[in-house]
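Hello Y.,

Per our agreement to keep a running log of every chain we model this quarter, I'm adding this entry. I've kept the format consistent with earlier entries: sequence first, then predicted structure.
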Amino acid sequence: MRPAERGKLRVATIVGTRPEAIKMAPVIKALQATPCCECIVIGTAQHRKLLDQVFKTFDISMDVDLNVMQEGQSLSSLTSRLLERLDRAFAEHIPDLILAQGDTTTVMVASMVAFYRRVPFGHVEAGLRTGDLHNPFPEELNRIVAGTVATMHFAPTETARKALLTEGKAEGSIFVTGNTVVDALLDVASRPLRLPLAIPSDRRLILMTAHRRENFGRPMANIFGAVRRIVERYPDVEVIYPVHPNPNVKGAAHAALSALPRVHLVEPLDYQSLVAVLKRSTLVLTDSGGIQEEAPALAKPVLVMRVETERPEAVQAGVAKLIGTQEETIATEVGRLLDDPVAYRTMARSVSPYGDGKAAARIVRIIAERFRLRVHTNGAKPQAVPAG
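Predicted structure for the entry above:
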């Protein structure tokens, strides 16, 4: 049954990991508030506990729980399970449009199954590229596959739009909407928030996230060595590090840092707690993706422990900096911000090159226009947002 026959556009939204859930939550809520759309939330649970945390924060329930997560899963086995279970879910629910966000294995497989079933696929946060197929791994390939299949590309910035045009994507299929993470961030940051642990008011706080596959092994050891040097040099500095459950990260982190009293190794934080820590932090030290978009909106300098980033806008705006994974460089760059007030103020500016908090409304309006539906989204028209 097609939209005209059932009276609504049936949109399957696919979510597998915590970052996807955060960035898709505003889109799901916007679709659910749109009478002409029927939103089906399919969770693959590629990250089980972390996904459940985010759904609770945004009061979202899964309509379908594929529960693919297995201990010690390989990318190949995960991909195989996702192919089978997503295909079964699409066969049962017969969506008119499939939406997925970002660059995970869940997103790549969702795009493939959409292609096999000849269902239009919309890619949220489309067009992010480093140009290096192995960095980040496997995310760069995942988003290239999703971008190859997509019929609607929801690009967060003008830079992302240009990358898609360079690859030969049709101009009429690309829409610059801003990034939905800003929608989610502004929502949660406006709520009463509490830190997950007590930090004395006279302490400077570093929020650290480190979990990238390409940083496993020696790069991760360098990162942990730099953290040790930082807290030893600065007695007023404390570090909160939400440790990813991947054994390659968790074991190494606890072995290297658990004895340091001002380094707090905590379980992955729910999104409200993470935003609370982000608001309290002095700076962010990360190899993650989404936090490069969130921190600048709250005027927090970001030091990115990678050699490439698919989010160059914050770097170009001067509020983020690529510093690699060498121990000496990391320690030096953190020290520069802690020691030099001018350098700190230069980066600690409230700059949001990733959007204005209305990306989800734009996406729903674009979908409605594409499928010739009538929808009101408080004037959030499809339009470009500043690229920094």
